Amino acid sequence: MAFGQATCYSSKEAAPWNWRRPLINTFPLPYLSIVFWTALAVAGILAKPILVTLLRLNSRQTVSAHAPEGHQKKQGTPTMGGLIVIAGMLAAMTVSGYRDFAAIVLLVGFALIGFIDDFVVPRKFVGKRGLGWKQKILMQVVVAVAAAMMARSSALGIGVLVFLVLFFSNAYNFSDGLDALAGTILLGLASGLIAIGLLTEMRSAWLVPLVAMLGAIVPFLFLNAPPAKVFMGDVGSLPIGAVLGYVVGQFALGYGTGMDHTHVAIGPLLVISLMMVVELVPVPLQILSVKLRKKRLFPYTPVHHAFEKAGWPETRVVFHFALAQLLLAALAVGLIVGLPVRSGAGSRPIVRR
C-alpha cells in the first residue's frame, strides 16, 4: 500500500484483510510513522512553552501529607505536564485524518475532567486538592458512556468499553506517582499493544492513538525524568488511560474484523494489562480493609509507594516497574504469535511460519 493511498478506518468500518499478503504490506506503516513523528515533533516543540505557561499560572503540585517520606521535596513542582502529550496526540490525529470520534471524545473529555481536577477546583476552592472521587467517577462515566455509544451498538459492547475505559483511566492515573513512572510504563504498554495489533487484524483506527501517544510521551519524559521538572497530572493521565482502555476493549471485542480472534486476544490482553491491575486493585481493597477490619492489607497504596516504604530508591522502583511492563508486553506478544484464529475457512495461525 502506497503512503498516498493509506486510509484510516473508523471504529465501525472493516479494514480490508488478506492474510496471504505479507504483514508489512497490510498496514499503512509509512502512515503510522508520520503519526509517530508528528506527535513527537509537536509535543517537543510545545513542551517548553507549555512548561513556561504552567509556571506563570502557578500550577503547582500539592503533595499529600500522607505521601511517603521524601516526597515533600516535590512540593511546588509544576503539574498538568500531560498537556504536552495531549497536544502531540491531537495534532497527529488531526494530520492523519483520524475519524474514530469515540477515541477523540475520550481524549478531550477526560482531559477536561483532569483540568478541572488539577486546576479549576484548587483555584476556586481554597484547601481542596481536586475533585472528590464520587464527582470524578460520575463525570468519567458520562464521558465513557457517550464515547462507547458512538463506537458500539450492543449493550455488552458498551458495557465492556465503559468498564475498561474507567479501569485503565484510573489505573494509569495511580501510576503517575513517581518521576518517569507513568511515561516508562506507557512505553512498554503502548509498544506491546501496537505489536499485537500488527500481528493481528487490528485496524488503523485503533493503532493511530497508540502510535500518537508513543511519540508524544518521549518529549514529556525528558521533563519528567528524575528530578522531575513537571508532573503529568490528571489532565494527562486520565485521558491517556481512557484511550488505552478503549483500544484494549475494541481489540478484545473484535468488532467487524471478519474473523473471530477474541478467544486469542483475551489472554494476551490480560497479561499486558497486569501492571494496571497491580496499580489499581490494591487501592480499593486497602480502603475496604481499613473501613471494615481497621487494618491495612498493604504497607502502602498505590503499590509502587510500598516499595519506597521498604527502602527502595525511587529510581529503582521506576526501573523495575518499567522492566516488568516491558516483559509483560513481550510475553503477551509471544502468546499471540502462532495461536490459531477461527475464520470462515477454518483455523489458521496468526503468524505463518
Question: What do you see in this structure?
Answer:
- The protein is mainly α and 353 residues long.
- It has one domain (39-60, 71-349).
- It is 65% helix and 2% strand.
- The protein has helices at 23-26, 29-56, 82-95, 101-124, 133-151, 155-175, 181-199, 204-224, 234-253, 262-272, 274-280, 282-293, 303-309, 314-336; strands at 340-343, 346-349.
- The chain has a two-stranded antiparallel sheet.
- β1 and β2 (346-349) form a beta hairpin.
- The radius of gyration is 20 Å and the shape is globular.
Average pLDDT = 83
Strand order of the largest sheet: 1-2
Total domains: 1
Shape: globular
Strand content: under 5%
End-to-end separation: 23 Å
**Helix percentage range:** 55-70%
Report the radius of gyration as a whole number of Å: 20 Å
Order of secondary-structure elements = HHHHHHHHHHHHHHEE
Low-confidence stretches: 1-26, 256-260, 342-353
Structural category: mainly alpha
Number of strands: 2
Biggest β-sheet description: 2 strands, antiparallel
- Counting DSSP H or I runs of 4 or more residues, the number of helices is 14
Write the layout of secondary structure elements.
Elements: H1 23-26, H2 29-56, H3 82-95, H4 101-124, H5 133-151, H6 155-175, H7 181-199, H8 204-224, H9 234-253, H10 262-272, H11 274-280, H12 282-293, H13 303-309, H14 314-336, E1 340-343, E2 346-349
Antiparallel strand pairs: 1-2
